[in-house]
Amino acid sequence: MPETPKKFYLTTPIYYVNARPHIGHAYSTIAADVIARRHRLLGDDTFFLTGTDEHGQKVQRSAEAAGIPPQQFADEVSATFQNLWKRMGITNDDYIRTTDPRHKRGVQHLWKVLEARGAIYLSSYTGQYCVSEEMFVDGPPGTIGPDGKPTETVTEENYFFKLSEYQLPLINLIESGELHIQPETSKNEILSFLRGNVNEVMAVASQYAGDFHEEVGKLSEEELLKFALDSDELALSNAKIPYVPGALRDLSISRTTFDWGIPVPGNPKHVIYVWLDALANYITAVGYGAEDRDDLTPEQKQTELAKFEKYWPADLHLVGKEITRFHCVYWPAFLMAARLRLPKSVVANGWLLFEESKMSKSRGNVVRTETILDAFGNEVYAKQFPESTKAERDLFAADVLRYFLLREIPFGQDGSFSFDALITRYNADLANGFGNLVSRVLTMIQKYFDGVIPCPPPESTVESNVRFEYSDEDEEIEVFEPGTTEVGNLTEMLRKVFDPFFDRADFSQLLTFTDAIIRNTDGYITKRAPWKVASTDDRDQLSEILYASAAAVRIVTGLLYPFLPSATSKVWAQLGLGDIEVAAAEGRIRNLEWRGLEPGTKLGPLAPIFPRADKGLAQIMTDMENPATPPAPEPADDPSAPTAEALNAANPATAATSTDHLPLTTDHSPLITIDDFAKVDLRVAQIVVAERIPKADKLLRLEVDLGPNFPRRQILAGIAEHYAPEALIGRKVVIVANLAPRKMRGLESQGMIVAASLGDHGRPSLAGFLEDVELGARLK
Known about the structure:
25 helices, 3 domains, six-stranded antiparallel β-sheet, alpha+beta, seven-stranded parallel β-sheet, Rossmann fold, CATH 2.40.50.140, Isoleucyl-tRNA Synthetase, Domain 1
């Protein structure tokens, strides 16, 4: 009796319909498509979901500005996403829209369940509301929001979700790995947010412990921790790690100042908070709430509910790193309150930077995926194949983008995109690498064996002709020449290396591994020189060489199929193996054994796979995008450009520079008015990421958290000589939140850390607090 296929349910974030899709959206969707294709070929019952998030005040106002109803506005923008995924050959099984009737009913069902379980209560709130970010911001009227615009004073009656009750359960789930979060930096950031500022509590404990001990300096860290625990300022998780009880606060989950959203059941003057609405898509798409749908027959309702039981929980949520908090704090808390199972894994990808700056509509530096599809499709593929269809050109270009994004950028980290880098990688790895190897091998089989895969001699050990070694210790692949002893064969390496890489979404290493096979096979061919062997009439040796080479091409093609579905389908056909999609569905590329290539197979028609791209293509794509302003020059690349230290002095976008030589009295300093001071937006932030910048001895790259109402931001601080990065994690600091961004060392600093300048050399001392201060609080 055949085994029941294992189910695998994965999702992308659903994309907000406030702007056209760009390659940052494509990045997450491509990664999901690669994973879905891999699980399908493994025989898993795979369900792949994507879609669009369409409610909220920002969409309503954008529609008003366009002079059309919000639904029409959402329809038009959502269609651009759907059409793009079709152009790119994305194989999503469903496309959810938050304006779908099935979603609305499901969200309202979830609300009623939460309300019935006592997880929701009604209260009121007055505060500064940032429309573009759909969030309240701490501060007085006129506070500048995270979008750089003045906030609006809003008084609202709100429903609140009892998020505070889930602080310890969430900490335990994440610490134990039951809720798996990747990469480790994202996991640590979420845990830091949930635990609160333990360091600050310990500092206060150290100060007040003097009331009970004559010499505070003699107290060990363990004694201070016990003091804090005894005073209930700290508590311990199941893993015996301290946290600050009460650091997680209740969450507002409704709005009354606009009506473009899903009405709250029983109180339609409220609409449901856009994040509760949006996150629920992961369950409404697979049938949750079907019992409340009046558009379904009883049999259809049962089918939908059975679908939910089958696919939920999600095996993998792919998200952008800026929304990990919503997916790893709010979402699991909602699910626990509703007594629903939690997703198994949340994997966050980094930001995609264009010319070293994060792509965003506000910066005007987004790159449209359509630009790359049109440029590579028309300027590269169509010139080689003028009779090709638009669909063929699109799928070829989509493969190019898929390969570049996943090969160039370690998944989970920020990575750079540029047209020049795209062309360079394409030519090196695909045109000169994979494409050249395929052409080289198959052309010789066509020439020397009339286009039939040769049969190697029985005594041949072709499996040992291409050898590799992988070291778990340093995660580097080392390629050995044929004949080297004491290294594993390729089939063994596939088992030991490829599957573990895929399990942890290490796409860059996966593609590095396949590139190593390609290069080693090329080296094997050059060393064995089959063209010379052919002149000696040694058919057995020639058969062995070309069979081994063709076997390697088959294995590489199978490995690359999830990444390059269009290109590998052509190579598979040229190998005489038929339709690769059928082969994947039938499990014929599930286990790529070395001798899986059948001798005597007749090659299909041969043709180039990856025509070479001209460097001039970069300018063509630049002209197609028509950026408003050229990218800023890179100071680090020009020896005559000012140093980071000089830039700091000219515009203090990092830690405070030395000012102790200046007078301390206002007699010699320019006087300012209270209005001048009010322009400086000083905020409390917590450092969640701190790391050194290569080749910058004085700079640290920090990411700071300003609380749930603000997006995380990056700040460069000239404090590397005085603070170890690991000592800064979790520390609360003061930042200038409305300082104009400044670019240094190829990175953008989005604020300034406030510090005192001490001594003759201006040693920085970061400003901080003894009391427990709420993140995002404004200093006045």
